[in-house]
Amino acid sequence: MPTNITTEILGDHPPLDLIATDLALSATWIRGGEGLIGFGEWKSTSLKGKNRFTEARKWWHEQLTSLKIQNNVHGSGTGPILFSSFAYDQSEESKLVIPKIIIGQKGGKSWITWIGESTQPPISQYIEGNQRGDIAFEVGALGNEEWKNRVATAVKKIKNGDLEKVVLARDLIANSSEAIEPRNLIAFLAKNYPSTWVFLVSNLIGATPELLVRLNKSLVTSRILAGTIRKSGDEAKDLGLAASLAKSSKDLEEHEYAVRSVADALSPYCSSTNVPESPFVLHLANVMHLATDVTGVLNDSAIPVDIFALIASLHPSAAVCGTPTDTANAVIDELEDMNRGRYAGPVGWIDARGDGEIGIALRTGELSEDLKTMRIFSGCGIVAGSNPEDELAESQAKLSPMRTALEIRA
Length: 410
Hints:
Largest sheet: 13 strands, mixed
Distance between the termini: 45 Å
């Protein structure tokens, strides 16, 4: 039986995104200099279908029973970790990865987990290098004008009473003359978007500001974002823009649908939930969002609720789909003209106790197997008051983190 060992790392150590081992980088979950980073693969699998969350739980528990776990650190995020990246739609492949080595940092403490020999693997500092090669972008499924036409069609459907909100996404293709280095993308995103969760799972890389669900013992947290305005770069002007966002009836309507969908999904599992009366404005490097943190406490029930059940209940939320869900999904299928893959799906980590952090795969791109092509995504919530030109500008702002990360690397 393989041994999984977790021990504290003492002394000075480099920032989490600059730590390296002899194995290839396989997974990350970093925010504000804290989180988890994995190297190598001990086990991985793909799955699809309507029962993918149940099957992921089963597979994870099977792997845990095959390990002899020795954890001298304890606490959330220590011990063996499952990194997961679920597809938006059940018909597409979801990816699960258990790294061979995991390094974690939280609250000034660092630890290392590994599977195999009793001797701790060596770790060092990764020196970020310039990426060779030229980047060229090409149109994805829909060009700008056609995508605006699809937004206009969605607005008509909403005004006709077919639905209340729908999220329409678009993609952009980046082609490189040389292999793209994932480490450089991760380092750039972690440095420039420190308030987002920077992730890597099976070639899906991104910096999401939205937390689908965090489970820490019995406390449940979800951060909902809906309603966006682009920053101007002028601090005084941005304060005015933030105030206008907080009062925007269009954005508040969009946000209300998203918050309501999350609160309704959590209520069967929680003995109490806290839903703030009004959102706050979350400031990111290039945009501002209306944001609400919904919290709850799990019920004391005979059948324990775990994070897999919460993910299944929450996905897809109105923040990435719309309201009502089935109608919005049908409109997405009709108008997007593309396969979302793992974009807008649940992504994050789960530990052996069932605790974890699962974000929504936004501000993201998926690398090809040869690392020379990356498909990047963005999406906008469409309601009755949406304007196609404004939505196009918002989608371009949301493409900016991954696009800039790719352009800077050369």
